């Protein structure tokens, strides 16, 4: 499968390339936009459930910093102590670009005893390296590492006993309609990149799948299913 055939949610051709293209609540958008515009931010910890845009936001910020490189350590794939030691050794290497933004993805998968190893690394490398930790559960993070970061929450909804999403208080939204409008806004941006036009009926079908629009990745996957179903039915007829 080539990149043109990949589902939108996983396709680098259609994924967000700026903070404005992410689905975010207002306070989170304003903070990330400030970091993107000024290229100045501390060590960060993005937390929230899977599919909420943490890693994408981290990549956008890292790429926005002129004179630095973006480097990714995926601890979901390798949570071993050896990978943590590779990270520590990497921070000590000379950088031709003068600095690095290091994304530690799925860092919650690393055992807390192993996490302890990089506590001093974070303190000692602030002039040359900045860290962005992407985690699903902050309770699994070694407290001294947690305390050395500024924390930004990427959760937007919870689901009630009927399976319907409700916006969380920290978003500042009064109703799920505001979250729906934000999802439609970013889906329109993504669909334009894909050369598609989404109809109101297709959005209605997607939102009828209540459990599928709790986070943006599930929503985009559900939306593309609706679109491709309609296209398939039209070809049959």
Structure description:
This protein is 41% helix and 14% strand. It is of the alpha/beta class and 237 residues long. The protein folds into 2 domains: 26-155, 3-Layer(aba) Sandwich (Rossmann fold), CATH 3.40.50.300; 159-236, no CATH class. The strands form 2 sheets. It has a 5-stranded parallel beta sheet, sandwiched between helices. β6 and β7 form a beta hairpin. 30% of the residues are buried. The mean pLDDT is 90.
The percent of residues in helical segments reads 40-55%
User: For the largest beta sheet, what order do the strands appear in spatially?
Assistant: 2-3-4-1-5
Please report the first level of CATH classification, the CATH class of the largest domain: Alpha Beta
What is the total tally of β strands? 7
Question: Sheet with the most strands?
Answer: 5 strands, parallel
As residue ranges, the low-confidence spans are: none
Strand content: 5-15%
The CATH homologous superfamily of the largest domain is named P-loop containing nucleotide triphosphate hydrolases
- How many structural domains are formed by the residues? 2
Please tell me the overall pLDDT.
90
Shape: elongated
CATH topology of the largest domain: Rossmann fold
Distance between the termini: 27 Å
Rg (CA only) = 19 Å
Put simply, the count of helices is 9
Order of helices and strands: HEHEHEHHEHEEEHHH
Structural class: alpha/beta
In CATH, the architecture of the largest domain is 3-Layer(aba) Sandwich
């Amino acid at each position: 499968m080539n990149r043109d055939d990949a589902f939108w949610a996983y396709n680098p051709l259609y994924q967000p390339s700026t903070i404005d293209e992410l689905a975010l609540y207002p306070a989170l958008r304003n903070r990330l936009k400030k970091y993107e515009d000024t290229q100045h931010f501390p060590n960060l910890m993005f937390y929230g459930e899977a599919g909420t845009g943490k890693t994408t936001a981290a990549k956008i910020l890292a790429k926005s910093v002129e004179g630095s490189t973006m480097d990714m350590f995926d601890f979901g794939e390798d949570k071993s102590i050896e990978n943590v030691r590779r990270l520590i050794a990497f921070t000590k290497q000379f950088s031709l670009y003068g600095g690095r933004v290091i994304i530690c993805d799925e860092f919650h998968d690393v055992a807390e005893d192993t996490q302890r190893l990089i506590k001093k690394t974070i303190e000692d490398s602030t002039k040359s390296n900045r860290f962005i930790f992407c985690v699903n559960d902050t309770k699994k993070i070694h407290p001294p590492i947690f305390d050395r970061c500024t924390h930004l929450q990427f959760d937007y909804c919870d689901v009630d006993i009927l399976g319907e999403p409700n916006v969380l208080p920290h978003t500042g939204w009064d109703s799920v309609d505001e979250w729906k409008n934000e999802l439609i806004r970013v889906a329109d941006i993504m669909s334009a990149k894909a050369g598609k036009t989404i109809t109101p009926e297709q959005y209605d079908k997607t939102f009828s799948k209540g459990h599928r629009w709790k986070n943006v990745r599930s929503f985009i996957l559900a939306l593309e299913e609706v679109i491709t179903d309609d296209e398939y039915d039209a070809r049959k007829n």
